[in-house]
Amino acid sequence: MHLSIHTLLDYRIDAEADILLQIEAAANEPTQRVIEGRMTVATGSELHPVPVDAGLGRRTWTRGSGPFRVEYRATVDVERTVQDIAGLGVTPYADLPGEAVPYIWPSRYCQSDRFASFVAKQFGDLEGGAKILAMADWVHDQLDYVIGASDGDTGAADTFISREGICRDYAHLLISFARAAGIPARMVSAYAWNLEPQDFHAVAEIWLEDGWHMIDATRMAPIEGLVPIITGRDATDIAFMTIFGRADLQNQMVNVERLD
């Protein structure tokens, strides 16, 4: 699948602040190839790229004040086959690769330790990939997708109670369920073809016996049309932009088109 990506972030920053950008399609994702990609920051501040220690993506530091405008354009080839994970097993802790180990514990938005009893009761008769698929079905069926239903303080436990949220909330809850069952799970930010309305998207990625597998509990975009940006423990790590100061949104746009 040949995809064109165009992103625009337009903010006004009160006073000079450090800014962390995470909007470039991951160049180290094995099922996609970034043919060309360019990020420009209109303020003229220096850009300081920083590779992710483990996982996908790249972070870029810069600084800004007043009008702050970032534009990113890329062309990406995606060659991803969606695998049926139902028959895949769980990797024993002692056999996990180093890249998966950080994702077995609770994190700020994925309070997996609070779901151990529920997960054991609800999904205890299932194993491996079949268990993950049942969890994804539960999250999809039990939650309502409601824009504005959550904010920066909303964690998986809150979503479990309210039964509503947006893509990040669906991913947080699925990740929490998986970790509660002893299965490594991390969060992925992505561009998504066929997503309506178009925006940055968040999905879960689960480690089973042969590697990482993306699961979108919202079912709002096809997995084969996702372009991962960066991975992390939860929304804390994958935010498209973090401003260490006060800023006001002027305009924001994400557009993903299929070219073939």
- Taken together, the total number of domains comes to 2
Rg, nearest Å:
18 Å
Report how far the terminal alpha carbons are from each other.
7 Å
Q: Give the biggest sheet.
A: 6 strands, antiparallel
Low-confidence stretches: none
| Secondary-structure content class | alpha+beta
Q: Based on Cα principal axes, name the global outline.
A: globular
Number of strands: 12
User: Roughly what fraction of the amino acids lie in strands?
Assistant: 35-45%
Q: Please state the second-level CATH architecture of the largest domain.
A: Roll
Mean pLDDT: 96
CATH class of the largest domain: Alpha Beta
SS element count, helices:
5
Measured as a percent range, the helix fraction is: 10-25%
What would you note in describing this structure?
This protein is 18% helix and 39% strand. By secondary structure, the chain is α+β, with helices and mostly antiparallel strands. The chain has two domains: 2-79 and 241-258, Immunoglobulin-like (Sandwich), CATH 2.60.40; 93-237, Roll (C8orf32 fold). The strands form three sheets. Strands 1, 2, 3, 4, 11 and 12 form a six-stranded antiparallel β-sheet that branches. It has a four-stranded antiparallel β-sheet with strand order 9-8-7-10. Strand 3 (48-51) and strand 4 (58-78) form a beta hairpin. Helix 2 (128-142) runs antiparallel to helix 4 and helix 3 packs across helix 4. It is globular. The mean pLDDT is 96.
